[in-house]
Design a protein that fits this description.
With 113 residues, the chain is mainly β. It has no helices and 11 strands. The protein has strands at 3-7, 11-13, 18-25, 35-41, 48-54, 59-61, 69-74, 79-84, 93-99, 102-103, 107-112. Strands 2, 4, 5, 6, 9, 10 and 11 form a 7-stranded mixed sheet that branches. Strands 1-3-8-7 form a 4-stranded antiparallel sheet, with no helix packed on it. The N and C termini lie far apart (40 Å). The model has no long low-confidence stretch (mean pLDDT 97).
Length: 113
């Protein structure tokens, strides 16, 4: 059973950098073929795809974030981390990690102005 668990700061000040980590159990993030994804949902809005990190460590990020996002991983901990710089209140959302049909429960991040 693949399980994902997000962890984040809860509250971040505007202009700072946000870090949200996804801890994975039941599967290795280096296993061939799989892509590990970050998605967010702002209050009252739909899901927004942020980006993914592949099994080989390569990443693809949504152009809509204008270069503010990056994804890294720690294979020794079987974790991957979203970094979002220069945050604004518009980055307030529930942040989810997932792979295929497996989703974390999400973590609320609020950006304070």
């Amino acid at each position: 059973q693949v399980q994902l668990q997000e962890s984040g700061p809860g509250l971040v000040n505007a202009s700072q950098t946000l870090f949200v980590t996804c801890s994975v159990s039941g599967a290795s993030i280096t296993v061939n073929r799989y892509f590990w994804t970050w998605i967010r949902q702002p209050p009252g809005k739909g899901l927004e795809w942020i980006g993914h990190i592949a099994y080989d460590g390569s990443t693809y990020l949504s152009p809509s974030l204008n270069g503010r996002a990056s994804i890294s991983r720690d294979t020794s901990k079987n974790q991957f981390t979203l970094q979002l710089s220069s945050v604004t209140p518009e980055d307030t959302a529930v942040y989810y990690c997932h792979r295929d049909e497996y989703w974390g429960q999400g973590t609320q991040v609020t950006v304070s102005s």
